[in-house]
Design a protein that fits this description.
The protein is of the alpha+beta class. It folds into two domains: 132 residues, PurM-like, N-terminal domain (60s Ribosomal Protein L30, Chain: A, 2-Layer Sandwich), CATH 3.30.1330; 169 residues, PurM-like C-terminal domain (Phosphoribosyl-aminoimidazole Synthetase, Chain A, domain 2), CATH 3.90.650.10. 36% of the residues lie in helices and 24% in strands. The strands form two sheets. A seven-stranded mixed sheet has the order 6-8-5-9-7-10-11, with helices on both faces. Strands 1-4-2-3 form a four-stranded mixed sheet. Helix 4 packs across helix 5. The longest helix is centred in the N-terminal third of the chain and has 19 residues. It is globular. The N and C termini lie far apart (41 Å). It binds adenosine-5'-diphosphate and magnesium ion. Adenosine-5'-diphosphate binds next to strand 2 and strand 3.
């Protein structure tokens, strides 16, 4: 099977919204009146972002999910994406699984594949997504103000716990491994929540490299500091919060330092962290309900610069949680 047959079989679909999709030198995409295009790229490299033996269907999901998460962080609605793919060889079962996982998530968000590039080389997946947001309404990192509440969506730390288990650093009971691995390999981009927070959140970003490190970018861009409550964040490991789950008692026996490490500096969460003024608490709850995505208040923005951690009694907690940096 040659390059063009491969593209035709696995990556060509009829376009619905775009003016022109796969097959010409460029795709054509017209933003609607009053809208700005939100554009983001994310690359996944074998051995760096995923294990060589990961299921292709989950890899297809994750490659698009991490990009949709960036649109969510800006409050943008997904429109379309391009796929640049380097493949070591033509492996049809792999391609079938990968494109199935990729296009299922694309369809769920009405986000269409409009073009890309395919070459031979070490496995590497680069996606660029295009979304739309009403002009001036994109959620940015720079809008947090002293006094704002800090919120995080969904759960934190599960992906990191699964990674620790896959690397052999910790042993997890089968149901806990299955649940956390699902979060590592098939994250849920919080697209509906991001859109619902337009006009409510003062700042937002998605958590991909660890909560504290990522939130540091909001603080820097906004020129403020913050306090984070670690007795709230530690509860956000999924099974820990879910007492009905098979893993609940197991989580209670894990060392607190590991739970803090996973929730505060875990990476691969793809949740939203955002700020909003206290008088918008009801609006935040309404957005959460509308998006069917839970949100938890985890601290406050403050004028003095720096990120402070505190426990349930308001006592300081030492911050020794580094976030992920490819070149550090
Ligand atoms: P060109 O040489 O003009 O850049 P290509 O031969 O690389 O074009 O690609 C032919 C068409 O197939 C283009 O429309 C391109 O966008 C599309 N395409 C290539 N690879 C992919 C892919 N992995 N997924 C979707 N579309 C692709
Ligand atoms: Mg090309």
């Amino acid at each position: 099977m040659g390059e063009f047959d491969l593209i035709a079989r696995y990556f060509t679909r009829p376009v619905r919204h775009a003016a022109l999709g796969v097959g010409d030198d460029c795709a054509l995409l017209a933003p609607r009146a009053g809208m700005q295009l939100a554009i983001s790229s994310d690359m996944l490299v074998e051995g760096r972002h995923f294990f060589a033996d990961v299921e292709p269907v989950t890899l297809g999901h994750k490659a698009l999910a991490v990009n949709l998460s960036d649109l969510a962080a800006c409050g943008a609605r997904p429109l379309a994406f391009t796929l640049a793919l380097a493949l070591p060889r033509v492996d049809e079962p792999w391609l079938a699984g990968f494109s199935r996982g990729l296009l299922a998530l694309a369809d769920a968000h009405g986000c269409e594949l409009i073009g890309g590039d395919t070459t031979q080389g070490p496995l590497n997946i680069c996606i660029t997504v295009f979304g739309e947001v009403p002009t001036g309404q994109a959620l940015l990192r720079s809008g947090a103000r002293a006094g704002d509440d800090i919120y995080v969506s969904g759960t934190l730390g599960d992906a990191r716990l699964a990674l620790e288990a896959l690397l052999g650093h910790v042993q997890l009971p089968a149901p806990v491994l299955a649940q956390t691995r699902q979060r590592l390999e098939q994250p849920t981009p919080r697209v509906a929540l991001g859109m619902a927070l337009r006009g409510i959140a003062s700042s937002a970003m998605d958590v991909s490299d660890g909560l504290l490190g990522d939130f540091g970018h909001i603080l820097k861009a906004s020129g403020v500091g913050a306090s984070i409550h670690t007795h709230e964040t530690i509860k956000l490991i999924a099974s820990c919060a879910d007492t009905a789950s098979a893993g609940a008692s197991f989580y209670q026996n894990l060392p607190e330092s590991l739970l803090h490490q996973c929730t505060l500096a875990g990476g691969d969460d793809y949740e939203l962290i955002f700020t909003a003024p206290p008088h918008r608490r009801e609006a935040v709850q309404a957005a959460s309900t509308q998006a069917q995505t839970r949100v938890t208040r985890i601290g406050q923005v403050e004028a003095p610069p720096g990120l402070r951690l505190q426990d349930a009694q308001g006592q300081p907690v030492e911050n020794r949680f580094a976030s992920f940096d490819h070149f550090a």
